[in-house]
Structure of Nuclear nucleic acid-binding protein C1D:
Amino acid sequence: MANEQLPSSINKKFEELDESLTDLQTSLKPFLKIPVTDIREKVKDPLENAKLDLMVAYTANSLFWTYLITQGIDPKTHPIKDELLRIKQYMGKIKLAEEKKTMARVDTSAAKRFVRNALWTPSSEDANSTEKSNTDPAPEYKQTNRKDKKYKKRKNEDRNDKDTNNKDKKKKKKKKKE
């Protein structure tokens, strides 16, 4: 009886809305059977729990927005608009937290070691001339000990390699001349 009073284009829209709501209901049924506490127990990450809460809140508020429209109420003037904006702001905060979580972290102790080993203390002659030229002397840094056994060994190996290479080059030059 009510269908006869409405134009066919509006009836078609109502049928499409009814079909969409039925599809939504069937897709949400499995999730509505599971208690939220069970889902929370399975999710250990607090960030994921926050995302779950926001998803539920956003979905509920969006459905309420749709309900207001069907009742002829302008949702743009209703407090639901502010609630949806608040939820979107929290979504942005979670996105920032996720980015911070995946951001590369600096190993500060390793960085300190790199800096400490890269810096050197000037010799006593250089230090005296620096102090005379500057009223505020530079901070003292611990000089790395380059006279350890490994360094000497590497240095000697490098010298031996260079000597061997030079000898080989000289032999090749002699052969070419002959």
Observations:
- The helical segments are 2-5, 8-33, 36-42, 46-70, 80-102, 108-118, 124-133, 149-177.
